[in-house]
Structure formats: structure tokens, C-alpha cells
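PT: before anyone asks, these are the final sequences, not the draft ones from last week. 259 residues across everything. Please model them as a single complex and drop the result in this thread when it's through.
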Amino acid sequence: MINLDKVAVTTSRDREHQINTAKDISKEIGIQYIPREKMSLDSIKTKYNLSHLIIVREDKIVVDENYFFHPGMAIPRIKMLKKGEPDPMVQAMDINEGDRILDCTLGMASDAIVAGFAAGSMGKVTGIESSPIIYVITKWGLAGYQEGSKDAQKVMRNIAVINAYYEEYLQKLPENSYDIVYFDPMFEKPLIRSNGIQGLRAFANYAQINKKIIELALKVAKKRVVIKDWKHGRLFDQLSVDNIIGGKYSSIKYGFIKK
Ligand SMILES: C[S@@+](CC[C@H](N)C(=O)[O-])C[C@H]1O[C@@H](n2cnc3c(N)ncnc32)[C@H](O)[C@@H]1O
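LR: through. Structure below.
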């Protein structure tokens, strides 16, 4: 786990709106705000003995100059859905217009964005992320990302982002308060080597799901619980999941438990 005493937030320039965002982030996850005052990033890190530095730039928020928000494959997946092509995750979730979806492992929110698009404007997506740094990057990224179609951007702005451990958060939720509960745990070996995902890996929670978590999720889900695993993963055997969707040539598969 990252020691937040060794993480701070600064700005690329001493501009008021950047400073305000940096101060908001500082309060939100309890890290120090360091005024930039023309210091180099290296000298800030050395002077304050930091392991990581979050920088509020004009266009985006970056950690250590190499980890920032990117919606990954969400935009091309939405394009495919618009053309009427199937998306295995959407199929496994069996999403209908207006569905309420709880993504317990938000990460970069790529899956959450696709799920939000499939659930339409009456749908609702909430994403839980336990890592404070990933939470900050994804929350502010979803709020400000300017690329992609207008409807993809609208979905991004509507995702509610929560900094919590799903095992604790699920316990507080009433029965049937979401239609679908989704898990995409970290794989030990990376499947995709993109800068964004590589950045996330340093800060992610690698805890694995167990049957107790699935029971909790089944209480919260009105329709089904869906889990992602990689094609050679043993998660579905361990969790006794029999319904599996995944193309023969795909590196990932989705398991689901209907209620
Ligand atoms: C593989 S990534 C999810 C990627 C995501 N589906 C996407 O499309 O970008 C898993 C994420 O879940 C988070 N996570 C793992 N265990 C968690 C827990 N117990 N509570 C909340 N978040 C957790 C990790 O920190 C990581 O960011």
C-alpha cells in the first residue's frame, strides 16, 4: 500500500484554477499541497522526501509525469455497440436501458463507461476504487476528459466515483439497490501494455475476490453479479461460477451469477 505521507500534489503553473483543484485533491485524499513557485518537480520531491507527486496541469492531472486518465478501449467499444456489434461484457451483464450498475473495481473506468453507455441516459453507474491515487486520477479524468464523442463524454460525467473498499461499501448497501454488480480484479500479469494501465499498476489493490464477497454482492444485486477473469484464470472454478462468456480468441472471459 502507498504511504500517503509521502505523496503530495502541486500544479504545473501557479494559476488560480489549478491551485484550487490541487487544494481540493489535497483535502479529499489527505495529502499535502505544495505550491509550485517555479520549483522543478525533482527538487520538490527531494525537498519534501516524496515517493510520488501529483501534478495538476492545465489539461490533465498526472502522477509522476507518466500516469494519467485515459478511457482505454471504451471509445472504440462504444463505437462497436452503436454499430450493433456485441460486446461480451455487456452481454454478460445483460444490460437494459435504465439499469443501475455498481462497478466494484473502477480502475480507469473503461468498463464503467461502456456499461454506462449501454444503460442509457436513465441508467446509473457507480464506481468504487480503493486506491486514493487511482480514485483521484479517474474521478477528475471522468469529469474533464475532452476527447471522444459527446455521448461518451456525457456518460463519463454521469459516473459517480467513490473512494472505498468494496468489501466495506457493499456491506452498507441495502438489498437489491443495484441491478448489476461487477468485479474486474487485478491480474498479476498485465494483459495490456499501455502507459495508462502500467501507471495504474503501481498504485492498484491486488486483493482477490472470495465467496464471501460474492455473497455480499448477490445481496446488493437485483439481477446478477458479473466477474472478469483472464482466459487461463481459475477464478470461476474457485467461485463456482458456471455461466461464462468469452470469445475463443479473446484473452479475457466474463462469468456471471444470476439471482
Ligand atoms: C483491473 S483494474 C479495473 C479496470 C477497470 N475495469 C477498467 O476498465 O479500467 C482493478 C481495480 O480495482 C481496484 N480494486 C481492487 N480491489 C479493490 C477493493 N477491494 N475495493 C475497491 N477497489 C479495488 C484496483 O485498485 C484497480 O484499480
